[in-house]
Write the structure tokens for this entry.
Amino acid sequence: MRKGFLALATSGLLAVTGLAACAEDKGADTGAPKTPKIGVILPDSKSSARWETADRKYLQAAFDAAGIKADIQNAQGDKTQFQTIADQMITNGATVLLIVNLDSGTGKAVLDKAKAQNIPTIDYDRLTLGGSASYYVSFDNKAVGKLQGDGLVKCLTDKNVANPAIAQLNGSPTDNNATLFKAGAVGVLQPKYDAKEYSLVADQPVPDWDNAQAGVIFEQMFTQASGKINGVLAANDGLGNAAITVLKKNKVNGKVPVTGQDATVQGLQNILAGDQCMTVYKAVKQEADAAAALAISLAKGEQKTTDQTTKDTESGRDVPSVLLVPQAIFFNNVKDVVTDGYVTKDELCTADFAAKCTEAGIS
Ligand code: BGC
């Protein structure tokens, strides 16, 4: 199921309730007219390729199409830099802030500062626990984890692995999404652990989703388990690739299914090569379009209602939300990601992968 933002809007998922239609709305703090200007802070460019290759591109395109000014910056994983960028955006007259927090504490500080200046905010992709964002736009992240858990089970079953030993390489402990991904996946795997059908041999989070650290952690897991790891629940493609590198070194790549997330070129190529079992495709264009549409309406002084809310587990607040539907990708439907325009055939089907692309029906 793939609904664009417009489809969501027409189906009533989002409805305009406020009627301030003029672009030059009165600023609440000074009374002076404010030109809509949207500040976006992306988290980094290393934990996943998506932020720079997809989110930035689609957000910019959505703001450009609406003729709205936007300043999109990347904090490069630096929490101090994150605050500095936010301060500058506020000083430079941002009328809406859209953030992907690096952790809830520093995210909350930025949201609170914006709120004090009557600047509405959107939590983009990651919910800031205890925060004050006006909206939260993301995917159903527990569903992402469930797809990973189900995917791992499918790949182990396809390979006829009996009593598999599983290693769980989880996302950053400071990212609420990582908590949800794990909850969704463990919901599938725990009954198998309990029934002694599967065994859990390693389970660790990767601080800041750091791919290099993930390699070190997985190497330790592999050594400690004396190489007896039959399946890897990796929370995204970057962590999955770190595990695959270790598996390759030990000549067991392809034998041990590894999960992922983000449908990155690297992740999809790992799937085509048979080294990765699956990834989760999140159509970032839908997410960016939904967030941009909300940001633009906020910048114009409009209020929209959403038909979903997300419980902030720290404050208990129900945050108005748009939560989109993720899709599992295996070898057979890698082509869906290309058809959707998320990656191009040229990027994916380089010389080494040309034959596999043909086999997977990518033409
Ligand atoms: C996002 C994932 C991404 C990860 C690392 C999560 O919050 O939802 O798409 O892979 O952060 O950047």
About this structure: The CA atoms of residues 146 and 184 lie 4 Å apart. Residues 47-48, 50, 125-126, 175, 177, 209, 236, 261-262 surround beta-D-glucopyranose (CB under 6 Å).
